[in-house]
Structure prediction request, 326 residues.
Amino acid sequence: MSAVLQAVLQFPGAHSALKPAGPQARIAEGLWNSMYATAIVVFLLVMAALLWAAFRRRRAEEPAPDPARERRMRRVVAAAVGITTIVLFTFLVSDISAGRAVTATPGKDAIQIIVTGHQWWWEVQYRDSVPQRWVTTANEIHVPVGRQVAVELRSTDVIHSFWPPNLTGKRDLIPGNENSLWFQADSAGVYRAECAEYCGHEHAKMALLVVAQSPDSFARWLTQQRDTAHTPADSLTSRGQEVFLSSACAMCHSIAGTPAGSRVGPDLTHLAGRATIAAGTLPNTRGNLAGWIVDPQRIKPGARMPPNQLDPADLRALLAYLETLR
Prediction:
């Protein structure tokens, strides 16, 4: 079992904007904490004033107007209005400052990634100055700790929204338009991202994992991703490759180094190295993969992937082959 999958199983769904792991998320958390603390103080003051007004001793007869008391009350009201104005203006300035910091242009050495939203999965492509060295994967973003990552956001169908709350704020993916954001992971870990814009029937099952690792580990992962799929080494996996290429699988998926080159569904060249399947719906285990292949509609109703009625022997061979794609 991969270290990524172990982390996902240990902390299923663990993601929170109040547990920042990057500079932009810390800016948002700082703004949130200051607003929250101010709201608590205001609430306590208002409740104290209400309790004082409710329980103070009232005189039997209405006293005559007291000019001095009215002047004091006017000063109290004026002071409250002034303090409220100062607090609101302070938060306005803080909000603008935080917005500028979050949307600042990333550095020139930032890693360039294209994230494309589909119903209901994520396509991830790593750019390189040499087109042959571009890497395409699905539903996972691997990044080195301490380095900025510039993400270009696209959509092929409806509006999606990319949001890794531990790392940065959300940004929409709009068909026909290119949007962008950047983030940086300051500590190693697996951070869950979500589609934060309702995009159809399986919107809730459209997750993405951001895997932050050491620079050396990331470099090894990227080099591995540039390799083509392993050639089958035995009769069982050879039969599995034949099943894949002769079935509907090859009509939607691609595996580098084979004739399968369709871009309708996720690239499967390194499927076995991913922590989950079906965009974060299930851990990537043999049993889950078998269930997903045979009847994806039971697991993710409305998914674009059709059922695949395979002979048990062919299914075992196909699973054996797919498990070699690391």
